[in-house]
Amino acid sequence: MARQPSGADSFDSLGEPTAQRIAAGIAKLGAALRSHAWRAADARGLTPTQGQVLAFLQSRAPSPVRLNAVAEALQTSAPTASDAVGALVRKGLVERGRDEDDARAVALRLTEIGLSESQRTAEWPDFLLRAVETLPLDEQGALLRALVSMIRELQERGEIPVARLCVTCRYFRPYAHPEADAPHHCALVGAPFGDRHLRLDCPDHDQAQGDAVQATWARFSGRGRPAASP
Q1: Residue range 26-64, pLDDT digits in tens
Q2: How would you list the strands of the sheet with 106-110, edge to edge?
Q3: CA distance 60 to 52
Q4: What are the extents of the domains in the chain?
Q5: Does domain 20-126 have CATH number 2.40.50.140?
Q6: What is the helix (H) or strand (E) element at residue 218, kind and residue range?
Q7: Distance (Å, whole) CA 213 – CA 194
Q8: 143: phi then psi, degrees, rounded to nearest 5
Q9: How confident is the model over 188-215, as pLDDT tens digits?
């Protein structure tokens, strides 16, 4: 006699695969962010691209940033990035100078007014932040871990700019501690931390090299995780 499909089997045969529904959900969040960014930017007299430039420069402040780094971070062309930067310079939000390491290169910095504006620009996704804050801490940690995994995969494929992730840092020690809520270790600060503390853009990030990157990722992603005690 053929086995009757279980409830889960029945649902598996209906509609799109789970991965497709997750991707659709992320796309909906992306659409909401773009719509909100357009409204917020217009209210401040900025375009979304100009707002992104301010946010990126603010994330690297007080260090100067080259134009090509801005274009790479925004995943846009150099002319588009240059146009956005030029508009911000005219508004008095960004200043150009010579790069200390290469006098031929232009370095970009936020002005005092630009820094203040960039901090307000960073508040644009607050509507999404409030939604995330409704999740329990363990679900926030699981969501952040999933985002880290997705970002790293896209990074490996060259789909997005390289991010300063904990999981690619030479100071990151996954599952170095037995505590379930803080199993990882940061060798830079010498302290344990959990999934909910993972960083997507750490200013102290120091890229791991060679086989260490893959070994760390294998352990973090579960393939190298120690077996649970019976």
Answers
A1: 888 877 777 777 776 666 788 888 888 998 898 888 888
A2: 65-66, 106-110, 94-98
A3: 13
A4: 20-126, 136-221
A5: no
A6: helix 211-221
A7: 19
A8: -65, -45
A9: 999 999 999 999 889 899 999 989 999 9
